[in-house]
């Protein structure tokens, strides 16, 4: 499916769901009141423009009113932020990165937890993936970097051996939308939650992380060759959808 | 880890953990950030503009007019208009110690009777207040004027005409062009003169300011603003009770029907602007789900849903009448759950023009009503916002009427105090109608034997009017706390009040004395002279105090030779003056005034020929006002509308209180405009009829008396 269509469809659905969620979790009357007061103070600046003290006083009230409005929006935003953050993280694995292409070199980086472990790391590649060059050791970072090349589309497990323990990393070779995990980590609960799509590395493997440099994806808009990061597109489209649905549903944001 | 702690951690992590997603968290966050940024940005731009241009504008003003306040005795004048406040009642309650703030004004400043206009009717008197001229120069003689072509009434203050051009498309007649609103009040309100001199004014709900006129200040129109139907207030009683009765005036009865287990009714709206035939009413359906056990009902009107207990009002509910093709009318109304069992009855206030979305201009600038609605919420915009007809017709009871009236009053107070905050220099004037409406409706409890309250035992009579005066005194106390020695505070009323216990049908008197003739075989006439034989009629009356001759060449079917008019007026005056009510021997008419002797100005031709001054306790009957001829001349007034002021104007002067003492023995409402202009150091226009009052020498150095906290 076209990534553009996926983003458009998702934006509309998310716009709708988020507006409804915001409506249910917010104090709609108080938000409407706060917005009305803001508008009133803005109008006061215009109505009493020759009275400088009123203008300045109204400006101060606009600032205070904005603070009150943001405070009212904070609680429902918290409810909205959790699901949408999780959603965006999940979507970013499919829409933010492109899977690797056949016969295009890519890097696989393994970070060890000590210099000794780094010196004892080896790689076990499936038959469809070959090393394109000898590994490079970056001692300062305890990292070993391989340049690899895939000959066929598919999902493969690359095995890493270190100090007699092994760990694996999924590598996706595809031209279609695919759910990708750019890194596999040991510990780092929050980072794993937001960045990785794979289980934690074994604690005794001597490896901190295994990462694959999937290329970033830009969505083609089909207009004069313009491309855009999916998050920006999602931001704009979901805002538009949200605006439409808030009007239709009579929900104050 | 407890669940709560885990949730908190997850929330914090979601917000602060580094990830791609924290750049954007959905439309909610996007809107919140954009809206608040936009508000601050626009406010900043406005403020910056105001700040940067202020010195230039001040300089421009200085060059053009020199210093606007250079000759002003006061920096600010605050005029509170308490429509109908009566000097005798005020004096009585002050002597009883119930009005401490008014008493302080009396002590330190002025308390006097304020001569009113001929006739003593609000639109007439307030027009004189604002223009400083007699009715012959401002053209307002009553709420109603008569069309000499057909003897039918029209609103004297404003004329509203729909677009002239229409294009027929299928079932629609699409209007092109603007609705034309023409103000009928002539002469210039004094705040226009102030504005020209660079003095800002806030004018709130002064009667006869619709349509609003441009000037340097802000204005919210008052009495005479129509409802969305274009009437002066049409309430609606939705009921399951079958009845063929129609309300005499001011309201309609709408059925509530049960369909699929839900009660349904509708709010009648304005005529459709797209209808090819006039009178095709727009309607807004709504649902009622009564809960007899809980004694409440859930009401759904459009997207608005609310629950009302029996005897409870809703807030102002925004409603929209859709005519089609994008033609919508926006209004607001309040619902009142009157009864739930055995009948289901819902009262709906007249549909007011929505101040936040005005379909007709009700303020200057147009944004002022929007500003007030955004600041304090929706409010009544109808000229006669307190639904006296509904109480007269027993649709509302005393408590429901008072709740409505004081709800409007509280909104008005908020507007006043905002205007006081915003108008540190210049004029701030606000008229409160509550004093008038409550006295009209509750005078019956002041008198032991008022025909409208004979059934009500003394023990059940509330001290409504006393409470009203105390509330107004409390308001004055709060205003006094907001002003300093550089502010002049004036409290005025347009007229006083008297009992309205007996009705007089002047048309019946004219009929019985040979001045008005009925068609053959008729002994009475329906509304608006339905059965009057104009070919034999020499005089007639409609409205509250005016009496007209049927003059040849002026009235379409006139028969009185203009040369005979003077003699006829004198004859009627002589016969009517001192007319005695045979039932009790009281004088029903204490004075008749030939308007040619009372008015001066270019519009005197539009005035009635005679003004009838009823005696205390009397007023034109409800039928007579509507051009009806009855068999009886005098009868009891049994309506809740039991006090009035449309009597001999000499009997009902208004009040004048002020914070600084004026030297004037017989002040009149016509003097207010010239007095204010003089106090601001402006020259008086030569056409003014009023004379400015002088301040007592000690007034200039006196201080505002400290307000007494409300008890």
The helix content of chain A is 40-55%
Extended strand count of chain A: 11
The major pleated sheet of chain B works out as: 8 strands, mixed
Identify the quaternary structure here.
heterodimer
Q: Which regions of chain A are unreliable across 5 or more consecutive residues at pLDDT < 50?
A: none
Q: What coarse outline of chain A follows from CA principal-axis ratios?
A: elongated
The name of the CATH topology of the largest domain in chain B is Alkaline Phosphatase, subunit A
Mean pLDDT of chain A: 88
Structural domain count of chain A? 2
Structural class of chain A: alpha+beta
Ranges of chain B with pLDDT <50 over ≥5 residues?
6-25
Name of the CATH architecture of the largest domain in chain B = 3-Layer(aba) Sandwich
* Spatial strand sequence of the major β-sheet of chain B: 2-34-25-1-24-9-10-23
Throw out a few tags for this protein.
heterodimer; A: alpha+beta; Immunoglobulin-like; 6-stranded antiparallel beta sheet; 11 strands; B: 711 residues; alpha+beta; Alkaline Phosphatase, subunit A; 5-stranded antiparallel beta sheet; 17 helices; 36 strands; 25% strand
Task: Give your account of this protein's structure.
The complex is a heterodimer of chains A (253) and B (711). Chain A has 253 residues and is α+β, with helices and mostly antiparallel strands. Chain A folds into 2 domains: 3-97 and 222-249, no CATH class; 106-215, Immunoglobulin-like. Chain A is built from 6 helices and 11 strands. In chain A, the strands form 3 sheets. In chain A, strands 1, 3, 4, 5, 8 and 9 form a 6-stranded antiparallel beta sheet that branches. In chain A, strands 2-6-7 form a 3-stranded antiparallel beta sheet, with no helix packed on it. In chain A, helix 2 (28-47) crosses helix 3. Chain A is elongated. In chain B, the strands form 10 sheets. In chain B, strands 2-34-25-1-24-9-10-23 form an 8-stranded mixed beta sheet, sandwiched between helices. Chain B folds into 3 domains: 72-140 and 188-225 and 383-497 and 658-711, Alkaline Phosphatase, subunit A (3-Layer(aba) Sandwich); 231-360, no CATH class; 501-651, no CATH class. Chain B has 17 helices and 36 strands. With 711 residues, chain B is of the alpha+beta class. The longest helix of chain B has 40 residues, at 26-65. In chain B, helix 11 runs antiparallel to helix 12. Chains A and B meet through helix 1, helix 2, helix 3, helix 5 and helix 6 of A and helix 1, helix 2 and helix 8 of B.
